[in-house]
Write a structure and sequence with these properties.
Length: 435
C-alpha cells in the first residue's frame, strides 16, 4: 500500500535541479565539520501537523485532501501509521515525534483510550523495526480536551490532576516500549487567565510535583528519557508559566530538576516571547540545558503561533551556529513543528514543505559551519573582550580585585577610550556566508 504512488524517495540532486521532489541542498551523507549532515540535524517529523491537521481555521472549513481517512476512527488511525512511515522514509527523516492523541482515538473512557494506544503503538513499533526510524520524543496532550480548561498539572481540580498523571504514566510506558530518546512536556494550559482567582505558587508547586513523579516513575521502570520542557509565553493560556528559556531555567533550578530536565526550544515560541531563536538557544546553552529544537518560523506581521515551515536561512544559520557551539544537539534533534499553509492542501505538499525545511536547515548548517571554520565570530568576540585578557581585566576575571582596588585603578585611569563595533560591516560580512 502506498499513499504517494507517484513520488519516489526524495534524493539529493543539487541546487540546479528543477525536480520539485528532490533536495537541492540537503545531502544526508555529506560530511560537514567531520560529521554527516543527517547526524548534525537529526530531523524529526511531527505526527500532529503531518497527519491530523485538516487546514481548517476559525473562519473556514477543512481543506486538506488526505487519502488516509477510513470508515472508523481506528481504521483512520491505522492508515495514518502506514502513511506516516511512508512520508518519513521518502524524506529520509530518521526520527519522529507525537502526542498520545495524535496517534489513537480517545474512545469513551480513559481505559479505552489506553487500549487504543496499545494497539496503535504496537503497529508503530513494527514500522519502526522495519524502517529503522526512531522516536525522538513523545508527549501527552493535556491541553485540547475540555477537561483541561483550567490546566492539567496546574489545575484547580484534583481529579483532572490525576487524569493528567495517568496520561504521563502511559506516555512513559510508550516511551519505554518504543525506545524514546526524549520525553517532552509542553504546558499548553499550564498558566493563567487572571491572577484574581489564581494561586501561582500553589500551581507551580503542583507542576513540579508531577515532574518529580515522572522522574520517579522513569527510574522505577528502568527507562529515563531526557526530559524536556518546552517554553512558550502565551497561546493558548494568556500567561504560560514556561514563558521563555530563562524563566523555565529558573523553574528547573528552583525545584531542583537540573539533572533530569533540559529545554526543547521552538523558533516561533521564541519570537512570541520577544526573543530570537538563537537567543533562546544561547540561554539554554549557558545553563548546559540545550535539549532539542522545534523548527518552524512565525510571521513577523502576526502575533500568534503560525508554525510555518522554516525557510529563513539567516535565522536558521544563527540558530545552528549556537547548536555547533553546543557541540551538537543529540540526543535531541530538529523536529519540524510546522504545518502547511491552508492554500497548500494537496498530499504532495506534505513532502514539498518538509523538503523546503530540510533544504533550509542544510543551507544554514553549511553557512554556520563555515562561520565556525573561519572563526569569524570567535575572532570578533576575542577582540571585543580583549581588555579582560591582560592587565586589570585579567585580574578582575581572576577574582583578584575588589571595589576599593578598582576605585584606585579608576582614579588613575579615568580617561577611557572606547572602540567602535563597526557592526554594520560585521553584518554585511555575515551575508557573505549566506549567499
Ligand atoms: C505548541 C507546540 C506543541 C509542542 C508539543 O505550540 O509547540 O506542539 O511542541 O506539545
Ligand atoms: Co513545539
Amino acid at each position: 500500500m502506498t499513499y504517494f504512488p507517484d513520488i519516489e524517495k526524495i534524493r539529493y540532486e543539487g541546487p540546479k535541479t528543477d525536480n520539485m521532489f528532490a533536495f537541492r541542498h540537503y545531502d544526508a551523507e555529506e560530511v560537514v565539520l567531520g560529521k554527516k549532515m543527517k547526524d548534525h540535524l537529526r530531523f524529526a517529523i511531527a505526527y500532529w501537523h503531518t497527519m491530523t491537521q485538516d487546514g481548517s481555521d476559525p473562519f473556514g472549513a477543512p481543506v486538506n485532501k488526505r487519502t488516509w481517512i477510513g470508515d472508523t476512527e481506528m481504521e483512520t488511525a491505522k492508515n495514518r501509521v502506514e502513511a506516516f512511515f511512508e512520508i518519513c522514509e521518502k524524506l529520509g527523516a530518521e526520527f519522529f515525534c507525537f502526542h498520545d492523541v495524535d496517534v489513537a482515538p480517545a474512545g469513551e473512557t480513559l481505559e479505552e483510550f489506553f487500549q487504543n494506544l496499545d494497539e496503535i503503538t504496537d503497529l508503530i513499533k513494527e514500522k519502526m523495526e522495519q524502517t529503522g526510524i526512531k522516536l525522538l520524543w513523545n508527549t501527552a496532550n493535556m491541553f485540547s480536551h475540555p477537561r483541561f480548561n483550567n490546566g492539567a498539572a496546574s489545575t484547580n481540580n484534583a481529579e483532572v490532576y490525576a487524569y493528567a498523571a495517568a496520561q504521563v504514566k502511559k506516555g512513559l510506558d510508550i516511551s519505554k516500549k518504543l525506545g524514546g530518546e526524549n520525553y517532552v512536556f509542553w504546558g499548553g494550559r499550564e498558566g493563567y487567565e487572571t491572577l484574581l482567582n489564581t494561586d501561582m505558587k500553589f500551581e507551580q508547586d503542583n507542576i513540579a510535583r508531577l515532574f518529580k513523579m515522572a522522574i520517579a516513575y522513569g527510574e522505577k521502570i528502568g527507562h529515563k528519557p531526557q526530559f524536556l520542557l518546552e517554553p512558550k509565553p502565551k497561546e493558548p493560556s494568556k500567561h504560560q508559566y514556561d514563558f521563555d528559556a530563562a524563566t523555565t531555567m529558573a523553574f528547573i533550578q528552583h525545584y531542583g530538576l537540573e539533572g533530569d530536565f533540559k529545554l526543547n526550544l521552538e523558533a516561533n515560541h521564541a519570537t512570541l516571547a520577544g526573543h530570537t531563536f538563537e537567543h533562546e538557544i544561547a540561554v539554554a546553552r549557558s545553563y548546559n540545558a540545550l535539549g532539542s529544537l522545534d523548527a518552524n518560523q512565525g510571521d513577523m506581521l502576526l502575533g500568534w503561533d503560525t508554525d510555518e515551515f522554516p525557510t529563513n536561512v539567516f535565522d536558521s544559520t544563527l540558530a545552528l551556529y549556537e547548536v555547533l557551539e553546543n557541540g551538537g544537539i543529540a540526543p535531541g534533534g530538529i523536529n519540524f513543528d510546522s504545518k502547511v499553509r491552508r492554500s497548500s492542501f494537496e498530499m504532495e505538499d506534505l513532502l514539498l514543505a518538509h523538503i523546503a525545511g530540510m533544504d533550509t536547515y542544510a543551507r544554514a548548517l553549511k553557512a554556520a559551519a563555515k562561520l565556525k571554520e573561519d572563526r569569524f565570530l570567535d575572532e570578533l568576540k576575542e577582540k571585543r573582550y580583549a581588555s579582560f585578557q591582560e592587565g586589570i581585566g585579567a585580574k578582575i576575571v581572576a577574582d583578584e580585585e575588589n571595589l576599593e582596588t578598582l576605585t584606585d585603578y579608576a582614579l588613575a585611569h579615568d580617561q577611557i577610550e572606547l572602540e567602535s563595533s563597526h557592526i554594520e560591516y560585521v553584518k554585511s560580512r555575515l551575508n557573505d556566508y549566506l549567499f
